[in-house]
Amino acid sequence: MIKFAGTMKRIKCAQQTILLPAVAAVVLGIVSSSIYLYHDQLARFVWRQFHFENVALTLDRSDPQLFFDVGNYYFGGGAYDIGRAEYYFKKSLDINPEIDGAHYQIARIYFIRGDFYTALDEINKEIELHPDFKRSYYVRGLIYGYSGRLKEAENDFKEFLKWKPESWAGHNDLAWVYFTKGDYKNSAATAREGLKYVPNNAWLLNSLGVALLNEGNLAEAEKVLTDALAYASAMTPADWGRSYPGNNPSVYGDGLDAMKASIERNLALIAAKE
Fold first, then answer.
1. Residues of 63-82 as b/e, b for ≥16 C-beta within 10 angstroms?
2. 95 neighbors 68 (Cβ within 8 angstroms)
3. How far lies 4's CA from each of 1, 7, 36, 264, in Å?
4. In this structure, how many other beta carbons lie within 10 angstroms of the beta carbon of residue 128?
5. What residue segments make up the domains of the chain, in order of their start?
6. Cα 31 to chain centroid, rounded
7. Does the predicted model carry a pTM greater than 0.85?
8. Could you read off the pLDDT of 101-143 as tens digits, one per residue?
9. Which helix (H) or strand (E) holds 182?
10. Alpha-helix residue ranges (DSSP H) falling in 75-201
């Protein structure tokens, strides 16, 4: 009687030896094809879930939005390195010269650096490409204001406030423009308008207080500035930072201290006049 058990086992082992590499090759092929077909989704997943920058950009170097998202991360979205942020924003523009927001973010970076000429050039490009993105008018208003072009700044802040009338920052910076021009009446009126939306805002209260002080209304100025100091004193450096997105987190505390010191000086001026 012939026994086939050992022979059959050897045949099965041989089949497995042949089949396993073949199956593995098929599986790897499917995985490789999936990565190739869905590398953009995988790259975004790797970035959003783990912030593995090099891995994500190795998987997909053709997605302008991915580069833009990495730029936002380095522009206060999780880390702060405006040099790297600028690099990634510019890379996104290399891939798609019309991508939303890249020129806007680059303009903000140059504004923070004090390069108002380049900042203006970048924000004008954003407005030309995307005129309906009204936040650009606010940034351009800041650039004009710090460049001494107060009429243009006034126009842009007004344009921004048509779109977002509840913006305390828009009202505060428009009030600052009027104040700088010596128009204390309109400065006070603009600050009051903003306070209708955010009545406890320390910046607007300070702007109103200094306008009233320069109008000679010392009693109301003292009351308003006292309220401003109380609200500012209750703030944390992180609160200050949220009001000035894009700034280095290391300056949040100094910024808040400077704000409180400014209010205290104005109160001291009132006390000296009384």
1. bbbbbbbbbbbbbbeeebeb
2. no
3. 10, 5, 47, 100
4. 10
5. 165-274
6. 37
7. no
8. 999 999 999 999 999 999 999 999 999 999 999 999 999 999 9
9. none
10. 82-95, 102-113, 116-129, 135-146, 150-163, 168-180, 184-195
- Hey, which residues does 80 pair with through a beta bridge? 75
What is the Cα–Cα distance from 52 to 57, expressed in whole angstroms? 9
Which helix (H) or strand (E) is 196 found in, with range? Answer: none
Q: What is the mean pLDDT of residues 143-156?
A: 97
Distance of CA 101 to the CA centre of its chain: 10
Q: Which residue has the higher pLDDT, 31 or 267?
A: 267
The pair of structure tokens assigned to 192 is 């009051």
pLDDT top residue among 91 and 40: 91
Q: Which amino acid is at 171?
A: H
Q: What would the pLDDT profile of 40-62 be if each residue is shown by its tens digit?
A: 554 555 445 545 555 555 555 67
C-alpha triplet 203, 227, 246: angle, nearest 5°: 20
Largest CA distance in the chain: 124
CA angle 189, 193, 199 (to 5 degrees): 120
Q: Is the distance from CB of 252 to CB of 240 less than 8 angstroms?
A: yes
| C-alpha separations of 262 from 210, 213, 237 in Å | 10, 13, 16
Structure letter (DSSP) for residue 80? B
Answer for the pair 155, 130: CB distance below 8 angstroms, yes or no.
no
Give the list of residues 6+ apart from residue 177 with CB closer than 8 angstroms, or none. Answer: 141, 145, 150, 153, 154, 157
pLDDT reading at 6 higher than 80: no
- Round to whole Å and give the CA distance between 128 and 98: 10
Do residues 228 and 263 make contact, with C-beta atoms less than 8 angstroms apart? yes
Q: Specify whether domain 165-274 bears CATH 1.25.40.10.
A: yes
